[in-house]
Specification:
This protein has one domain: Aldolase class I (TIM Barrel), CATH 3.20.20.70. Helix 1 packs across helix 2. It is α/β, with parallel strands linked by helices. Strands 1-2-3-4-5-6-7-8 form an eight-stranded parallel β-barrel. The protein starts with a strand and ends with a helix. The chain is built from ten helices and eight strands. Bound molecules: orotidine-5'-monophosphate (OMP). Orotidine-5'-monophosphate (OMP) binds next to strand 3, strand 8 and helix 9. Its EC number is 4.1.1.23. It catalyses: orotidine 5'-phosphate + H(+) = UMP + CO2. Keywords: Decarboxylase, Lyase, Pyrimidine biosynthesis.
Length: 224
Amino acid sequence: MSNPVYLALDLPQLRDAQELAGKVKAHIGGIKLGLEFFCAHGAHGIHTMASVGLPIFLDLKLHDIPNTVARAMQAIHVLEPAIVTVHASGGRAMMEDAKAAAGEHTRVVGVTTLTSLDDRDLERTGVSGSTHDQVLRLAELAQAAGLDGIVCSGQEVKSVHDQWHDGFFVVPGLRPAGTASGDQKRVVTPRQARDDGASVLVIGRPISRAENPLAAALEIESTL
Ligand SMILES: O=C(O)c1cc(=O)[nH]c(=O)n1[C@@H]1O[C@H](COP(=O)(O)O)[C@@H](O)[C@H]1O
């Protein structure tokens, strides 16, 4: 089985991102580049990071009317990302159009409820019920819209897997035992998420902010 760990390179400097990816590339399966990276370095940054030779997960969390999202999808075709995110709460038509506009080799996954939110936070946004139920609801919508899978926390991935057997499940909010959660509220260990059916394990700070990122990546790999 290929390495399921995608390293979230949430770093402001392109050179630092390149250096870190180069250092740990033998112990990860891909690179996740998000909003911070894309706003700072754009398409040039994506092309630069593609030279590391690992699949690129372009995490832009698109969320707009269907036409706008579809056109954004078309514009990022040329970057050939392996995975792209849209917000599942953007609705079925938005997700259908996003998938139709994406490249043939790009997996489109729907972000459900962010791993930084707990039940109380969700309630404050006007959504009733638990984060768990909301994730399952949005997963069903994403599946009906023809997406390849969803993003959810490790606390829901088992239930989602039970209702969507061949889905592609991206799980962030991962912390090796004994490490700080920071702003993440729905957290599990990388091993737990993998055992519960995660296809991709998104890991950022536990590697990128570690004193020794290579040792941290090796340690995580050894637990999988
Ligand atoms: O779509 C994501 O990747 C994502 C969704 C989510 O619900 N929670 C979440 O943390 N992420 C991303 O996953 C990464 C997690 O980073 P760390 O908390 O440093 O491991 C960040 O780049 C987030 O943008």
